[in-house]
Known about the structure:
This protein is mainly α. The chain is built from twelve helices and no strands. The protein has helices at about 1-30, 30-40, 50-65, 70-85, 90-110, 115-130, 135-145, 150-165, 165-170, 175-185, 190-200, 200-214. α5 (about 90-110) packs antiparallel against α6. It is globular.
Amino acid sequence: MRSILGGALSIACGLLTIFAGIEFYKTLRFSDLVSTAARIEGGHSVSQKSAQRAAALAMELEQSHECREDLLMPAVTIMLHAVDEAAQEPNLSAWVDTLTRADRYMKFALGCSPKEGNYWLRFAMLRRLQGENTAELAALMSLSSKYAPVEPDVLSLRMRVWLSLQPVTRSAAASALASDLAHFLEHAPAQDIKDFGLAADMDMQSRLIDARRR
């Protein structure tokens, strides 16, 4: 019996070692993706070559159906950065292709992490670029609010997106918006709240007043 247990333990240890080695290789393999995304998120510029290399690695993740969150989140950053960069160029066809690729990528990311509120928000932002479909955007914003109600960075960005949406879309997601306003007033820095109020249109001003009264 001991020999059987010992053999099983040895096999298990061996498999764990192999698995750890594979994951370590992946970490090294996608290190450029992670470092480039970190520079973008930190507000630093990246070269076209670095961005293209990172985008290729991001696509490799999708093709291999790799859902490691420490790799997937940077990959999303890279794909959305590509959309922003393409929007600065006069080539409309290239921008549409980049937007389509990023849209597909967000579906992949959400397939990996369907409860990641940040991904639902980014997906809403992409769809907003394609036109304001009231029902769709209301649903996406509501899902983001549901899964990331008080994460500071996500909430702050979501409030900026709410400002950009039409009143009819806000009304279609009134419950989520009311929840976001309540959390924003409770948790955001005073200056951020002041800036938000200054940027708000009449519809949002009214909603903000209602939120303060509750």
